[in-house]
Every structure is written in structure tokens, then in C-alpha cells.
Design goal:
This protein is of the alpha/beta class. The protein has one domain: Rossmann fold. The protein has a five-stranded parallel β-sheet, sandwiched between helices. α1 crosses α6. It is globular. The chain starts with a strand and ends with a helix.
Length: 193
């Protein structure tokens, strides 16, 4: 199994990155290969609404740092998207990638039973960390993006939502979350629990 991870945080050792790395290391011990994209390090542009991916091409025509990430996700067996909550949503870096996955949709996608170009349905692990301790705050993010991911043809979204981790390193004190990441890796990669 090949796993592609997209890190949306500008902090490479932040809480969302820590949970994701824990998941990836466990997956590697189970035999998975992994590939990491730190989106903040890439020169990237948002979707330009040019619709070239629906007319003259079957992929995004923008050539930038996201090109390799889009290609890697296209061929991955499992995808991980990780982000802290910034101002009530995913980071701008991850949102730019999500917007560019519009290129995965076929021309006329709205009316198609099978709208996606992705080869096979891919499981998606969605790591979301937030500093606010009230779980009701930002609870809309996971369901909203899960619908988009399902439409794009990710088989199912496996959320790893972490609440009340405000300072960098806070999640390292949360053994329950790290165990949850390990369990998810064993379930998705190792076929067990």
C-alpha cells in the first residue's frame, strides 16, 4: 500500500503534523510506503477556473508545486490530509490543494453517475486539530469536506479530530489520540484492529 500525506500546517512539528507522522510511522511498520508533501514549502496557486481540465486536458494544467502532489494523490492507495483549524476552516495551503482536486472530476461531472477520474475509490484519513476546547466549535468542517471528498471519489473519510491542542506539542501529551492514530493505521493498512 502506498500512502500520500498532505501536510497543511506551516508548522512541520505542529499538532496536526505530529498526529499524521504517528499514523504514517505505524503504517510503515505494517509494510506501507509513504510520501509526504509539506504544502507550505511548495510554490502553489489556487484553482484558476480556467476549465482546461474539463475541455482540453484530463488533469490540472497549472504547473507549480502542487502538480506532483496532485499526481501522487491520483495514484495513491490511501491519502492523508492534515490541517489545524485556522479561522474556522482548513489552512489556506490545504484549501488550495482541495480546490485543485476539481481537476479529478470529469467533464459534465454534475450529471454523471461516476463523476471522478480517480482510479478506484481511495480511503482518506482527515486529521483536524483545533485549539478551541469546545467540540461544538468548528464541528461543521469534517462533514462539509467529507461530502466533497466523497464526490471526488475518496471511498470514505476516516476523521481524526483533536480538540483542545492549542500550543505546539500539546498533542504529544494525548496518548488517547496517538493510540487512535495507531488503531486507524492497523485497520486501514494492517487489516485488523
Amino acid at each position: 500500500m502506498h500512502i500520500v500525506a498532505l501536510f497543511g500546517s506551516p508548522r512541520k512539528e505542529g499538532n496536526s503534523a505530529t498526529v499524521t507522522e504517528h499514523f504514517l510511522r505505524c503504517a510503515e511498520t505494517l509494510g506501507a510506503t509513504t510520501e509526504r508533501f509539506f504544502l507550505n514549502d511548495l510554490p502553489l496557486r489556487g484553482c484558476q477556473a480556467c476549465n482546461a481540465c474539463k475541455s482540453s486536458h484530463d488533469h490540472c494544467v497549472i504547473s507549480d508545486g502542487l502538480s506532483a502532489a496532485l499526481e501522487a494523490v491520483f495514484h495513491a492507495d490511501l491519502v492523508v490530509m492534515a490541517t489545524p483549524v485556522y479561522y474556522g476552516d482548513v489552512t489556506a495551503q490545504l484549501k488550495a490543494f482541495i480546490d485543485r482536486t476539481y481537476s479529478y472530476l470529469k467533464p459534465g461531472y454534475i450529471a454523471l453517475k461516476e463523476p471522478s477520474r480517480l482510479p478506484g475509490r481511495k480511503p482518506l484519513v482527515f486529521v483536524l486539530t483545533q485549539g478551541h476546547r469546545d467540540p461544538a466549535w468548528f464541528a461543521d468542517i469534517l462533514p462539509r469536506y467529507s461530502e466533497i471528498f466523497r464526490w471526488t471519489d475518496f471511498a470514505e473519510t476516516h476523521p481524526l479530530r483533536v480538540i483542545d491542542v492549542y500550543h505546539p506539542g500539546d498533542v504529544q501529551q494525548r496518548e488517547d489520540i496517538l493510540r487512535q492514530a495507531e488503531t486507524l493505521a492497523r485497520t486501514l493498512v494492517g487489516g485488523g484492529d
